[in-house]
Fold this sequence. Notes:
The structure holds two protein chains of two kinds.
Chain A lengths: L2 H30 L1 E5 L1 H6 L7 E8 L5 E3 L3 E7 L4 E7 L11 E8 L5 E8 L8 H9 L10
Parallel strand pairs in A: 1-2, 5-7
Antiparallel strand pairs in A: 2-4, 2-6, 3-4, 4-5, 6-7
Chain B lengths: L1 H25 L6 H30 L6 H6 L6 H6 L5 H22 L4 H25 L23 H30 L4 H32 L10 H26 L3 H23 L13 H25 L14 H33 L3 E3 L1 H18 L2 H4 L7 H25 L5 H24 L9 H22 L1 E7 L4 E4 L2 E12 L4 E11 L2 E6 L2 E5 L4 E5 L1 E4 L3 E11 L2 E10 L1 H32 L6
Antiparallel strand pairs in B: 2-11, 3-4, 4-5, 5-6, 5-7, 7-8, 9-10, 10-11
Amino acid sequence: MNPRKRRRLYFAAALVIAGAGGAALAVSALRDNVLYFYSPSDLAAKHVPPGVAFRVGGLVEKGSVIHAPHAEIRFIVTDGKAALPVSFRGVLPDLFREGQGVVASGALTSHGVFDASEVLAKHDERYMPPEVVDALKRSGRWKEGEKQ
Amino acid sequence: MTGEIGQLALALALALSVVMSVAGLTGARATGERARAVATSSALGMFVFVVLAYAALTYAFVTSDFSILDVAQNSHTTKPLIYKITGVWGNHEGSMLLWVLVLAVYSAIIAFARAGSARLTSAALGVQGLLACAFLLFILFTSNPFLRLDPPPFEGAGLNPLLQDPGLAMHPPMLYAGYVGLSAAFAYAAAALITGEADAAWARAARPFMLLAWIALTAGITLGSWWAYYVLGWGGFWFWDPVENAALMPWLVATALLHSALATERTGAFRSWTLLLAILGFSLSLIGTFLVRSGVLSSVHAFASDPTRGAFILMMLVVAIGGALALFAWRAPQLKSGTAFAPASKETALLLNNVLLSAAAAAVFLGTLYPLVLDALTGTKISVGPPYFAITFAPIFVVLMLLVPFGPRLGWRRGDLKSALRMLSPALGVALVLALIVFALVAPRSLAVIGAFAIAGWVIAASAIDVAKRGRGAPLSAYASALAHMGLGVTLMGITGTTAWRSEAIDVLAPGQSMPVAGYTLTLQGVENVQGPNYIAERAIIGVMRNGLAVATMMPEKRLYPAEGQEVSNTAIRTTGYSDLYLALGDQRGAGWTLRAYVSPLAPFIWFGGAFMALGGIAGLWGRLNARRSSALLQAVPAE
């Protein structure tokens, strides 16, 4: 084997080992760290056990936002067909408003309240998170041209 | 008038880009002398017309010409002048024009620097012409910034207030200088494949462009992360958001490319691999552009968008990446291979660097694209959280950083591992001492934190040894790698410190009430209303006490931009250089206000490290340009 071939072999071997190791790491990490997205209707249809992390999205129901002590905020996320009570402790994004799109990540408590660890609102007036648009379309609450 | 001038300039630039690609590729043949001259002048012409179009759009923004749709939708008369100028790239159309402007600048630099042979330069210009042509078509047909609005409104819709910030104003141009800078590396790689000149001289010609792109990417990512930290009000600096990943992937590949091209330039090793990396680096830039501009992502960076743009960029992506890879598959086997090297050599170190960086980029790629692919195939919506990236990314970087100090200490072709270890033994000592200090002083003890500090100490001390060994009087570029590697260690310290030791407190305070956070006592003294140039703000005045002594008064704000109808919080940060006290003001609750406070030890190190890395790159580039000038003067240029 000439040096050039040997070097190629080393290189290929290093690449294969790194690639296989990386893939193994990545796949096992992916399996444990994927967050599913559900709309309130999805949640009504299928049972998600408490403590399993996922993301939920929809509109913040008008008149549902309650400020509880210790900076806790409670509100209801709806897609028009089903609704989910959410509790969040923290500073809400600046664009959080009643009647507008929101995506929250967290898990259900044993009382069926979604305990959110993070709340994302749309970040400009014309933009709506794609997941929320999709959830609203599926529940029949989305009309093209209403995008503003 | 402005709109028509801009439109016309873009059309002429498009025509010149076609000329440039045809002439440039024709000039790649040995006999194409006349074509080469045409390619050079059309690159210059295209540059002039793109600058003209860009100036026209800037003029329209500055004069608030609302007869232009783009201005009416994204500007406002009350906006400060600086944000009228930077607002040009605060929207989709303008930012694509900025993209083409940067591309035109790089084309002009390629035309005038004449790095490498005439045929190589010409072919590179040809490839740049093709890219410019594609992007100009994209702008003219899907994202025209000069569309008219009739009748013009009296007032514009304003610019997203989050973007009205000096840090973010500079972030897109920096990032684009990096993204598009990789197009120059890509063009040179394609040119090398076309002309067959993939030798050390090729690497010498292309490497300054890689360095420039890498410096800009490093600075752009650092600025963006800093902006996210102080604007978004969550105290975080990196969210593994798909758009952040879209910038990180090209950075990882560009870093690998810099190291691999170094070997190609010095010994002719890794020729094909360097070419492949140059192609992949720019491909990832294009993918990043697709992710950000097509509206497939939900992220703080996404603009409202229409699907034709996504389809257009996707097509461009397939043609550019597919074409370049096909060219690579066809021509790369014919390239000559470099000289052999021993297992303990600089080449081996650079090889490991490349394998690890590529693996890191692949891990990020998988986590970023997997949700998109799954959604497209099955309609299942998932997101991949930060833990995935931590689990895959951290081990790769641990190994990488353990190996980093060896690279600069090993010789080309055949290095001496024992003497390298001997030279690095003081760094080992520093790492152990640092680990012991962290072990003794900080509770709760965590193996990960202790290990991270040991690794950071190892890398920083090794870089210091490197500087000391070179002594004074060495050329600036000799310190480049030491500076950049040191930055890596400093950033690791910052990330570890903030992640492991951050304290957080949140409460509702009425005036006169206090809350504690990590040894500080924060007292809300009052909230006043402030009038800004285009916003009104509630400004909280917060007394900061430590050990019973008043140390500072901090004033976080909550700003309302009436033109845009948006609220933005303006955090207050008090930094000591090694620790940040960070306050964000929330909503009013009855008689009180929500206040969120963080103490983030070592947070500033994250950005200091980024600055070190960029400075290292600048030192390398500076040394390189100086060397080229003096060697041109002396006419004394043996290749090594």
